[in-house]
Each structure stands twice: as C-alpha cells, then as structure tokens.
Amino acid sequence: MTGPITTELHDDVLVIISNNPPVNALGAAVRQGLEAGIKEGLANDAVKAMVIRCDGRTFFAGADITEFGRPMQEPGLPTVVDMIEMADKPVVAAIHGTALGGGCEVTLGCHYRIAVPSAKIGTPEVKLGLLPGAGGTQRIPRIAGVKVALELTAKGDPMSAKMALGAGLIDRVAGEDSLVADAIAFARDIAAARPLPRAREKTAKADPEAVAAFKKDNAKRFRGFDAPAANIACVEKAADGSSFEEGIAFERAEFMKLMMGVQSAAQRHIFFAERQAAKIDGIDPKIALRPIKKVGVIGAGTMGGGISMNFLSAGIPVTIVEMAQDALDRGTGTIRKNYEASASKGRIKPEQAEAAMGALTATLDFAALADCDLVIEAVYENMDVKKEIFGKLDAICKPGAILASNTSYLDVNAIAAATNRPGDVLGMHFFSPANVMKLLEVVRGEKTSDDVLATVMALAKTIKKVAVVAGVCDGFIGNRMLKPRQIEAMKLLMEGATPEQIDRVHVAFGMPMGPFQMSDLAGVDIGWHRDPTRIESIRDALAAEGRWGQKTQKGFYDYDEKRNPTPSPRVAEIIEDFRAKSNMQKREISDEEIIEKTLYTMVNEGALILEEKMAQRASDIDVVWIYGYGWPIYRGGPMFWADSEGLKKIVAGLEKHGFAVSELLKSKAESNGRFN
Ligand code: T1G
C-alpha cells in the first residue's frame, strides 16, 4: 500500500497503520488508505481481527481542517466510520496521544477501543464552531449516555483514558509502552466474540433533566455561539427514539449549517492564526535558541508576581527582586496565596504549589540576578526608572542574558539604548492578571537579535502563552487599537450616548465588557495626572471626585458591596456639565453609530499597524484581540470581522463620520480585498 496508510499482518490480526505527521489528520489519503486497509482485512480469510493504530505522537487528531471549504474527496469520514462499524470482523482502535474529533469518531466506529493511560479522547469540534460530523453525536450518547455526550461535544474538552474507561468509551487501558502488543493481544482475545458491539445498534436513554441542567450551567459560556446548541440538539436527537439513520441525517444537516456559517470560519481562522503567530517571518525556525534555565523578575507587584508564576508553574526557577522588604513580602505572599487557592480548588496538586514556591527566591539584592538567563523588568511605567534599571542590569547580568521589559507602551528602543547590549533587549508585554491572561506581546526592538526573539517566542509556548510579535510603537498592537476605541467612546458621551448604552452595544456584540465597564475594572485613575484641580475631561472630573472605578465602589457606574453596577446620576451630571461647557447639543446616538465609531476606528488602526509593519500579519492582530481583550472568537478578531463585514462597508462608515481612512484599508476595499 502506498501513501500514509500501511498494513502489517501479525498471524491472524491485521494491523492498519497511519503515518501522517504531524497529527495524523484524517485527510483524503488517510481515509482512502483506511478504506483499503479494512477491505484487505475483510478479504483475507486468515485475518480474524483488525487493529487501527497511528505512528508518531498521536492517534488521528481529527479531520484535516485545511481541507475544509474545498471540494471533499471521497470517501468522506462518515463513510469510512460506517464501513469500519459494519465490518463482519472485529476492529480494535489502539489509542495514544489525542484521539480528537474525527479521530475519536473513528474509534467509535470500531467495535473495541484500547488506550494508553496518557491518551486523551474527545470531540473539540465545537471549538471550531462545528460538531462531530462523522456520527459522534449519535454514537457517544449510545455508548456513554447523554450526560457524557453533552460534556464531550458541546463543551469540547477531552477526557482522560481513565475517565473514558469509566464512561465506557474505551474497553481497556494498555501499558504506556506496550500499546501495539496489547492491542494485538486484545484483538486476538475478542476475535471470535459475537455479536460485534456496534454503537448504532445501542439505544440512548433520554435525559431531559441533564440537558436542562447542562444548558443552564453553561448559558454564560455559550452566549453568542451557534455550535453548542447544535451539539446539544444532536445529542437530544440521539436519545429521542429516532433511528440511528434519522439521527445521522439530522447531525449532517446541522453540521453543514455550521460549516457554511461565519462563526466556524472565524473559529477555524483563529485556530490557525494562533499557530501562525508563533512563527517569525524571515527567521530560520531551526535557529539556535538561548537556554533559559533561570529567570529574574524585577518588581513583586501585581504584574511581577503574576509574571513569576508563569515560570514557576512551568518548573523554571525565579529570582524576584524588590526595593523594600515589605513590598517583597507582600508580593511573595500574594504568589503563595494564589497557589494555595488553585490547590484548594483542585486546579493543581498541593505538591505542585509547594514545588512552585520552592523554586522562588525572593531578595532585595539586585546582584542576585547576575546568573539569570532572562530578566524581566516589571516596575512602574516611567522611562527614567526603566533606563536606570537596564543600565544596572547591563552591568551585572552575565553575557548572553536576555533583558526584557514588561512595559505596555514605552519605547523599547530607548530602553535598549540604556545598555551596551541592545541585541539582548526586547519587550515582553504580559496582560493582567499575568498568570491568567494567555496573550503575550513580544516587542521586537530595532536591534533585538533574531535568536533572542526566537528564544522568547519559544519560551512563550513553554509557559503556555499565546505570543505575538509586535513592533515598537505607542501601545504596540492591542493597546494601540484600544486607544481610538476609548477616545471615540468618550466623545460619544459628550454627544448624547450614556456609558450603559455604549457598554450594552459592546456586550451585545460579544465583548466580555464595554469600554466603561473596562475602565472601572482597570481603574479610572490609571494614567491620570493626579491633580484634582486640573479638570480637562470627563475622566479628570470622575478621578478628581475619587470615582476611580470598582476599587472605590464608584466610577462610570455606582457599585454595591457585591460590585454590581448601576448607572450613576452623578456621572450623568458630570457629562451634562461638560456638554454645557462645550456648547454641545445632546442628540440621539444609534447603536450602529457606536459600532462604527468605536470598532471601525479600531480596524483602521489595525490597518495602520500593518502598513507600518508593527505586526507581521493581520491574523496576528486578531490573535491579540481574542486572547488579550476577549474579542468574541466566533467573530474571528477585528480584522477577520472587518473582512466578513466587507471592507467597503467599513470604509463607508469611517468616511461618513469624517475619519481619515488608512491607505491599506482603502486600497483593499477598492480591490475587494481582505485582510486575511
Ligand atoms: N487538521 C490539520 N492540521 C492540524 C490539525 C487538524 N485537525 N490539528 C493540528 N494541526 C496542525 C497544526 O496546525 C500545526 O501545524 C500542527 O498540526 C501541530 O499542531 C468530521 C469535522 C492535536 C492537541 O479540533 O487540538 O474532526 O503550525 O501546534 O500543541 O467530526 O493540534 O505545525 O504547521 O496544535 O501538540 C477536530 C485540533 C477537527 C484538533 C496537538 N480536531 N488540533 O497540539 O500541536 S474537525 C481538532 C489540536 C473534525 C469531524 C470534525 C492540536 C493537538 P503547524 P499544534 P500541539
């Protein structure tokens, strides 16, 4: 046999092997090879049972997502799965790595399943805006029941081999290093067993209470998404007394609806965009990286503590430095509290928390950073302070150490110029809370060397961050686009909109919160000049009255003790005062105008970022906004969203309100182009 599938005859057991790196995706050649392999086993009388297994790091990790949107080549995956299930000889799935999506569905078509303890099994299609389209929504309920099926399909998180054994989704657990032998032995054990267990012949018991509870428990998580409801409907169909064929037809129809929809296109876009962001154009992916065995963090505040936890949790020792003992104690105390909280919630084992704390060295002695391979400065945003720190680091850190600033907008080139080793300097902009938010903007200075950049991008994966390369400009990528949004939102207040109207429009769009809710959370006083007598803006007026946001129980909203917001009459007065002083007339503001002024301007800024090469690609900008600001993933990020809205419409909206449109956006709109 040619192509990615080969077969091996072990006496009376035929082993069908896939070798399709990197993840044995079920592309056309694999499906064709599987079909041929099964036919070979059925045609050979010496074969009493078959095993399907994969070489490389994982069992089939799903359909080949790169094939979506292109004409499907026969045989389709449902056909292959049906063929396996209807075989009149037993077929055993030998599972390692991650049997996901179509890979899981191949196992469900098999009559028996054996997995190594470290294997994971699941149907994450919902994370791509889809559902298991090769019978998974009909077979899982029949094998494991409605409850398990809801969790696996509508939430999309995989389960361990142990849990899958408990749920009946696998029949045996193999030795971690003896899967092939154990699978062949298992196949021989059951070779004569009849009737062959076929999921399609089982019955799923309806469980309306479980469905209702599941919908209620996940209402917030599913808000705005189409796919979860479709998965739930398919699982209900499997248990409503319909025949397997009726269920499959229903699943197919629901799958095609999702596949043709913009949400799945958006979520598939982000799946690849996130992986593309890790690649640095123009740098050899095999470039030698600098070993990072020990990390130093300067500053034990909220950011320094959160940054330290990323490395400690990845098993990388951290030396954290502060200027004063009480600040150091507060910082390390917060780190310990965070780990203890995670352990008490069962997110990590107590011994993991202990190990992390054991790898933390806290000191007031700057010289302790001398043997660190990477030092991250996380002190407050003052250029003079940062220059002084980097000058000191230059003097004490060993040659080859990487020096990074966590600055969120200051000029990384100026910081690098404070050292004699600008090639070793770059920005690592973490998002608060740094131990939770997945986004890391890696800011490439003019002189940052390639291996330093590549080292930090690879390190980001180690600490489970989604990293995006940004150029040196005010606000890099994310905050640079946030700026026009916040400016336009404030202007709209002067023209007659209210904070709650603008926030409502953004939340309805799918953002986790609107501009003013975000200001109250982050702090209205951030960046304020602190002079209560100098009142030049609505924000100055709020800050001057101590309306600093949630932390003072009042900001753009008033808050009760549970931090529930209510519109503030005082804020309305302040806005009215400013409007009067500026001789502005209040007018009706439409929701559409709010979108045009706050989101179209963000897209325009994104286009300028691309023009100035401050981002490598439009999809990187999408990744920044999904992972740094909660942009709804089913809209694919600002640039993908603009493409789906139509760039001509974006340009028209900007011009209608007198905004200068970026050349790149204009030219793309004129040529019916897209950013992605
Ligand atoms: N199709 C095509 N390419 C894939 C792929 C897939 N399913 N999964 C991964 N890749 C590529 C990925 O783009 C990257 O490429 C490389 O493999 C390594 O991936 C009918 C319709 C398996 C847990 O959703 O979750 O089946 O960047 O960097 O961190 O019902 O990949 O190297 O060029 O992520 O070790 C359902 C998606 C599909 C699983 C491995 N399956 N994949 O993680 O490596 S829809 C999924 C993952 C479906 C059926 C339906 C992860 C992983 P490059 P990686 P990793």
Automatic annotation (TrEMBL):
Pathway: Lipid metabolism; fatty acid beta-oxidation. Residues 294-470 form the 3-hydroxyacyl-CoA dehydrogenase NAD binding domain. Residues 475-559 form the 3-hydroxyacyl-CoA dehydrogenase C-terminal domain. It holds the Pfam family 3HCDH_N. PROSITE patterns: ENOYL_COA_HYDRATASE. InterPro entries: 3-OHacyl-CoA_DH_NAD-bd (IPR006176), 3HC_DH_C (IPR006108), 6-PGluconate_DH-like_C_sf (IPR008927), ClpP/crotonase-like_dom_sf (IPR029045), Enoyl-CoA_hyd/isom_CS (IPR018376), Enoyl-CoA_hydra/iso (IPR001753), NAD(P)-bd_dom_sf (IPR036291). It comes from the Bacteria. It catalyses: a (3S)-3-hydroxyacyl-CoA + NAD(+) = a 3-oxoacyl-CoA + NADH + H(+). It is found in: Peroxisome. Keywords: Fatty acid metabolism, Isomerase, Lipid degradation, Lipid metabolism, Lyase, Multifunctional enzyme, NAD, Oxidoreductase, Peroxisome. PANTHER family: 3-HYDROXYACYL-COA DEHYROGENASE (PTHR23309), PEROXISOMAL BIFUNCTIONAL ENZYME (PTHR23309:SF49). In the N-terminal section; belongs to the enoyl-CoA hydratase/isomerase family. Belongs to the enoyl-CoA hydratase/isomerase family. This is 3-hydroxyacyl-CoA dehydrogenase. It comes from Sphingomonas psychrolutea. The lineage of its organism: Bacteria, Pseudomonadati, Pseudomonadota, Alphaproteobacteria, Sphingomonadales.
